[in-house]
Design goal:
Number of helices: 4
Number of strands: 5
Strand order of the largest sheet: 3-2-1-4-5
Radius of gyration: 12 Å
Helix content: 40-55%
Distance between the termini: 26 Å
Order of helices and strands: HEEEEHHEH
Length: about 100
């Protein structure tokens, strides 16, 4: 696992606590994917209700609070595949 994925998994675990009601995948371009579900946060590339795709810098900003997930989506820096409702719920949890 890369240092970037390792850091992202730790940061997501801190923000989401006991997990997420549903399944979400964070696809970090050039690095890999992270799964989030009721069991917590882990590296993986399983099917998910929603997939969020972005660069390392965009995900880093979302996780450290310097990038608003909604604004990243609106500006094209964050792509979403799947359930928009699940994406909005996850975006609220990360803010």
């Amino acid at each position: 696992m890369s240092d970037i994925l390792d850091h992202a998994i730790k940061a997501l675990s801190e923000k989401l606590g006991d997990g997420y009601d549903g399944t979400a995948k964070f696809q970090i371009e050039g690095e890999g994917s992270i799964m989030v579900d009721s069991d917590g946060v882990r590296e993986g590339d399983d099917e998910a209700d929603v997939t969020m795709i972005a660069s390392v810098d965009t995900f880093r900003g979302i996780l450290d609070g310097s990038v608003n997930p909604t604004m990243a989506f609106m500006s094209g820096n964050l792509k979403i595949e799947g359930s928009m409702g699940a994406a909005m719920k996850l975006g609220s949890a990360l803010s």
